Amino acid sequence: MNTRKFYFLFLFALFISETIVAQTITVIGKVTYQESPLVKVNIRVVNTNQGTETAADGTYQINAEVGQTLRFSHVGFKDVEILLEETSTVLNVPMDDFVESLDEVVVTAYAPAPEEDDLEVVMNVKLAAPFGRKFNPAAHGGVVYYLDQREIRMLANPDLNLALKDRYAGVKGPFTWMVDDIEWKEAPVIAYSEIVQMYLANVPGVGPTVFIRTVNAPEQLAAKRAKEAEKYKNQNFYQDDALNADGTPAEQTLGEPREVKGTITFLEAPIPDVNIKVKGTSRGTKTNRRGRYTIEVSPGETLLYSHVSFKEVEILVEDITERIDLEMIEVSNELDEVVITVTNAEGISEKRRKKAERPFETSRGRFDPSKAGYAVGVVDGEELSNTYSSLKEALKGKISGYSVGVNGRAYLRGGSSSATQDYPVAWEVDGVFTTDEPTYLDLSQIEAIYALKSLAATNKYGTLGAGGVIVIRTKYGSFNAAEKKKQEDLAKLQNQNYYSDDAAGYGGIAEVDKPILDALKAKGSAEAALEYYMESLQDSLANYGQGLIIARWFAQQYGDLSNSQKVLEALSNKHLKNPEIQKAIAYFYQELGMTKAAVEQYKKVARLRPEYAQSFRDLANAHLENSQFVLAWRVYMSYILGDNDISGEGIGKTIYSEMEYIYFNRSNQAKIKEKFVPIHDDIQDFRADVRLVFEWNTSEAEFDIEFVNPERRAYSFNHSLADNQDLITDEKTKGFSSKEFFVEDLQNGEWLVNFTYRGNKKPEPTFVKLTVYYDWGKPSQRQEVRVYSFQDQRVKLQLLRLTDTLLAVNND
User: Fold this and answer.
1) Which of 466, 468, 464, 434 is nearest to 453 (CA)?
2) Do the Cβ atoms of 769 and 694 come closer than 8 Å?
């Protein structure tokens, strides 16, 4: 066993012995390998003669004291040691293959010979053959030659055609080649090290055929993915995490297939015939004419969304994934590296996209959609003609949310059927604003139409623009052409990283939640309001997010955290198996300053997701906020000693930052005994004016974070599949959903922090926790926790204004 790990566990055992009176508990559980029970696993209480072994079904029972260590051992598997706590009454232990470390073996330049294949298994397969046929070697009436990796490596000639020609009687070239189900007319050029299996046979109607399966064959990729998933599963987990909340044996749910549903759209319109495939398998489906789909998939598998007109999107399925609503990303037709001899007609959708990103002038100033936090509907003038009876009729079906009411007026957003839609569309033609439809326009002379629907886009028009504004630019517009050209040239030279004052303020309580809070307030007292919530309201809420808002309301309205906790506990009990909801509840405990409750809540999340890196960090951070420095350091160290990756900008960096804080500021209180090497040279180098940590409760959340410095220069962090798919895949693989930022020096001025939400592929809101550490690492350090609820997409909101007045006068 790793000496450092043993030393760490020994120190922790000493700590436990000093704080907890010896207590005997009965531990039960099941030991498995790849989800199958392991028989005769030795289970010993370290440094005693107590022990037992697993039964035929992998189960065991043993009595031990809190603070003692159980060692699970079996020939061929790594030993597992688990320190017992008072809650360690159920321990389900997955065993891992024993692999010797490189410093204990002699490594040669030759790869070991592979094990012999089970011939009965490898011959009973269905291989794709030419003309859409299937070929089963075991059912073939003639001779089939099979070559495994050992025999393939012995082929003398690197040219496959020459190596196999005349080698086997009855199957002689010329050959038809099938490589991973794809037909080749000539011998493929493949390194023998990449070939796993090879079959040679005379296929009826085809002739001599060579079937080659490489390391990239679907079944090989699936096996590799399963191996990787097994490597991540229950690996390096925190010992307390093996428990269920109710003390019963934990259910093994990871890997169980489930239905995932969703809708695929582009520009708010459904996209039919999008191919959805489980990567590395033959399982798949397509969207229907409404853009909807259903597919069966297991956690850990990857869904691949593809369509000829859009970029491929890959999404890793997690334990919580039930719905994925996806906005496709259009593929741009790049021609600068292609020689083409015919005119390339640019698609309508591409024109709309480019025009949608082009700045345009209005009577209220210049709009730049590429910088805006909202969508702008665009209609190209080429789509319009005088065949339509009127402009408002011509726009039907061309702008999402556009409709004509029974009163003859045009409406945006909800349309005339919406009870909240009181304002018709306003119009602007070549800089002239009006509330009346411009019936005088010649439709063939319209250059472009822009539909401004967002409140952030129309607020410059006042109440007259509350129903949205349709901006029309004609070919004979009143804008000066020379001035327009000058402005366009200046725009090209303009620094695009400057902030354009386009963020709205965060509203706090959503309109849909206000009637609920008013009804609670009308009860007159905290007791009556709580009784009304528990007996009548909690089961009729639209989603769990409203329950969280109500918990906050009790604290703000009555200053009594006990009622808030009762609401949060009821929510937690209602959604025991949903880690995303449990995590959001923990966020609110932290915002309300209920640090002890937050620790217990994060333990629930860790039990649901013991293999997630975020579980380690959140539990350790909760201990830290609760001034439990020894426990915080212990959990952080359990992640480090698990040989987890702490490089790069991901969760490892966040964990190391917080470990450095303990090391520099709380070393004695944390009783640090390990040799810890900080990244920073000293505490002065470590400190910063502000540290910001963003966390989100669902890994499917997409958003942009914009930082604006005192010079009004903007910096953006893009968290979306379109901009950063590799990051999101890495987050899901390692299991984290957080990001830290530092402002080392606020300078003399103001920093802004803006947030643009882009959805989470499902109807529930996303909760984002922002922890702001002022005077990070300094004696005057203080922190503020804010939790935001996001559901409306593409609206840029201002979350923070940071100035040096927020810092302490003396930072030394």
Assistant:
1) 468
2) yes
List of E strands, 267-423: 269-270, 275-278, 284-286, 292-297, 302-307, 310-316, 326-327, 360-362, 365-367, 376-380, 403-404, 410-411
Q: Is the pLDDT score of 810 beyond 70? A: no
Q: In this structure, what are the phi and psi dihedrals at residue 114, rounded to the nearest 5 degrees? A: -70, 155
d(Cα 143, Cα 90) in Å, to the nearest integer?
A: 55
Distances (CA, A) of 732 to 22, 641, 652, 736, 790: 40, 21, 14, 6, 21
Q: Which pLDDT tens digit goes with each residue over 130-141?
A: 877 888 888 887
Residue 50: phi, psi to the nearest 5? -80, 140
Q: Where are the beta strands (DSSP E) in 587-699?
A: 688-696
H or E element at residue 574: helix 561-574
Q: With CA atoms as reference, report the closest residue to 209 among 156, 131, 279.
A: 131
Confidence check: pLDDT of 773 > 90: yes
Alpha helices in 461-524 (DSSP H): 481-493, 514-521
Q: d(Cα 428, Cα 17) in Å, to the nearest integer?
A: 77
> Three-state SS for 345?
coil
Rounded to an integer, what is the distance from CA 85 to the centroid of its chain?
33
Q: Compute φ and ψ for 736, nearest 5 degrees.
A: -145, 155
Tens of pLDDT along 459-516?
A: 677 777 777 889 998 877 644 444 444 444 444 444 345 666 777 777 767 766 788 8
Alpha-carbon dihedral of residues 675, 680, 686, 688, nearest 10 degrees? -150
d(CA 718, CA 706): 9
**70, 89 contact by CB (below 8 A):** no
Residues near 119 by beta carbon (within 8 Å), at least 6 away in sequence: 146
* Rounded-to-10 torsion of CA 156, 157, 162, 163: 30
Quote the tokens at residue 412: 């945006």
Q: How far is CA 391 from CA 58, 406, 769, 777, in A?
A: 74, 16, 46, 62
Q: Identify residue 412 by its one-letter amino acid code.
A: L
Q: How many CB atoms lie within 10 A of CB 731?
A: 22
What amino acid is encoded at 480 in this protein?
Answer: N
Instruction: Annotate 743-767 with b (16+ C-beta within 10 A) or e (fewer).
Output: beebeeeebbbbbbbbbbbbebbbb
Q: Which of 396, 469, 480 is nearest to 438 (CA)?
A: 469
Q: Across-strand partners of 269?
A: 266
Instruction: Report the 10 Å Cβ neighbour count for 778.
Output: 21
CB 782 within 8 A of CB 774: yes
Look at residues 674, 691, 287, 704 and name the one whose alpha carbon lies nearest to residue 502: 704
Output helix, strand, coil percentages for the chain, rounded to the nearest 5: 30, 25, 40
The DSSP secondary-structure symbol of 142 reads S
Burial profile 237-255: b = 16 or more Cβ within 10 angstroms, e = fewer: bbbbbbbbbeeebbeeebb
Per-residue pLDDT at 98 exceeds 70? no
Cα(170)–Cα(186) distance, rounded to whole angstroms? 20
Backbone angles phi, psi at 517, to 5 degrees: -65, -35
DSSP state, 249?
A: P
Distance CA 737, CA 101 (A): 32
Tokens of 592: 């309300």
Residues 797 and 789: beta-carbon distance below 8 Å: no
Kindly report the number of other CB atoms within 10 A of residue 739's CB atom.
Answer: 20
Cis peptide before 174 (omega within 30 of 0): yes
Q: What is the pTM of this model?
A: 0.51
Distance CA 625, CA 635 (A): 14
Task: Give the Cα separation of 450 and 469 in Å (integer).
Answer: 8
Q: 């001034």: which residue's tokens?
A: 627
Residue position matching structure tokens 């293999």:
611
339's tokens: 């020689």
pLDDT in tens, 256-292: 788 999 999 887 778 888 999 999 888 999 999 889 9
